[in-house]
Amino acid sequence: MQIDETIYLDYQAATPIDNRVLQVMQDAYLTNFANPHAADHILGWKAASTIDAAASHVAALFGLQAEDVIFTSGASEANAMVFQIANAVTVETGKNEILIGAADHSSVRNEANSTSLKLRQISLDKNGAPAPSEVEHLINENTALVSVIGVNNENGSITELSKISNICKSKGVILHADLSQAPLAIDIDLLKLDIPFATISAHKLYGPKGVGALLAGPGTSNLIKPIVKGAGQQGGRRGGTMPTELIAGFGEACRLILIDGESERERVRLITEYFVEKLEKKQLAKLIGDQKLRHPGNALMHFPGRDAADLLAQLQPYIAASTQSACSSGSIEPSHVLTAMGLDHQVASECIRFSFGRFSDKEQADRAISLLSSHFEANLN
C-alpha cells in the first residue's frame, strides 16, 4: 500500500481496513444502528442478529463457537481480563505465580506486573519465541497461569503452542495465548490445541480499531471476571453496549481470512523473502531470526552501524516502518523483545521491523529497497 509518497510497511502495528470490511460496517451504520440490547423491537433484534453472525465468523476462525467470543475494546482489555482470571485462580486455589514470555506484548507485561502475584519470565528459544522447555522447567504447583504470545509482534517468531499447551494441561495449569498477530501467520484451532483463553484484535487483521475479543474455550466462563461490569451485557462477562458496527467489521475481517488466509500468507511471504534477499545481497542489512519459522510478513532487519530511529527519520516521508512495537514507539530504550533475544544495546538500536501485508506488492518492495540503497549511497559520498 502506498499513501501519497509513503510506502506502508508497518502491517504488524496496524493493518489498513479492507474495503469489504468497510462496506459491511457502513451497511451496519445505516441499517443496524439500534441498540442491540433493545429487546422490544425488530431493529434491536436485527442489530443483535448482526452481532451474533459476526461472533460466529470470529469463532470459526479459531475453531470455536459464537458463545465462546467475548467482545472487548481490544486485545489490551482482553489481556487485562486474563489476569483477573489469574487473580481468581489464586483466591480459589492459593496458587500465586504466573509465567509470561520474556518477549510478550507490553499489555501483557504491564497487566502481569500489576497483579500481586509472583511473576516469572519464560526465556526464548533460538528464534525468539517462548521456549517450551523453559515452560516445563518453570511451571510448578504454585503456577496459576501461563501466558505466551502466539506470534511475536516484533521479531515475527511463531510459538510452539501445541507443546506448551500439552505441558500446561499435564500440570493442570491454565494457558492463555495472545493471538493478536496469529491470524495472518498461522491457522489456529483453539479446541484442538486445548487452549482455554486467547486474545485477539480486529485492527491486526484488516478490521477496525477499537474492538477485540477474549476467546474462552468451553467450560471456562465461570472463571471470567469482567473489568467492565456495566449492565451485565454478554452474559455478565463484559458490560457495556456492544458496538454493532465495529463488531460487524471484525466478523467480516475474520470471515475473509478464513476463506483466503492460506493463499494470502504465501503471497506475502514471497514479497517479504524477496525484500530480505535484496537487502542482504546489497549488504545493507541482515535478517534477525529464522526466515521460515516466522510471520510471513515480518522482516526484522539489522543495519550495522546505523541508528534505526535516525535512519527511519531520514527516510520520512517515504517509508513507514518501526523500530519496535507501536505501543513502545518513542521509547529511548531498546526493544525488550530484542534484548530478550540476547541482542546487546547497540545491535538492538540498529534494528528496523518492516512488515508486509494484503496490500503490499513487489513494486512497493522494490521502491523501498531503492530508497534504502540510495540513502546509503548518498551517505557514503
Overview of the molecule:
With about 375 residues, the chain is of the alpha/beta class. The chain has 2 domains: about 1-15 and about 260-380, Aspartate Aminotransferase, domain 1 (Alpha-Beta Complex); about 20-255, Aspartate Aminotransferase, domain 2, CATH 3.40.640. It is built from 12 helices and 13 strands. The chain starts with a strand and ends with a helix.
CATH superfamily of the largest domain: Type I PLP-dependent aspartate aminotransferase-like (Major domain)
The CATH architecture of the largest domain can be given as 3-Layer(aba) Sandwich
Low-pLDDT regions: none
Give the assembly state of these chains.
single chain
* Sheet of most strands: 7 strands, mixed
Distance between the termini: 31 Å
- Report the CATH C-level class of the largest domain: Alpha Beta
How big a fraction of the residues is strand? Answer: 5-15%
Radius of gyration: 21 Å
- Name the helicity range: 40-55%
Element-level helix/strand string = EEHHEHEHEHEHEHEEHEEHEHHEH
Annotation, overall tally of beta strands = 13
How many domain modules?
2
**CATH fold name of the largest domain:** Aspartate Aminotransferase, domain 2
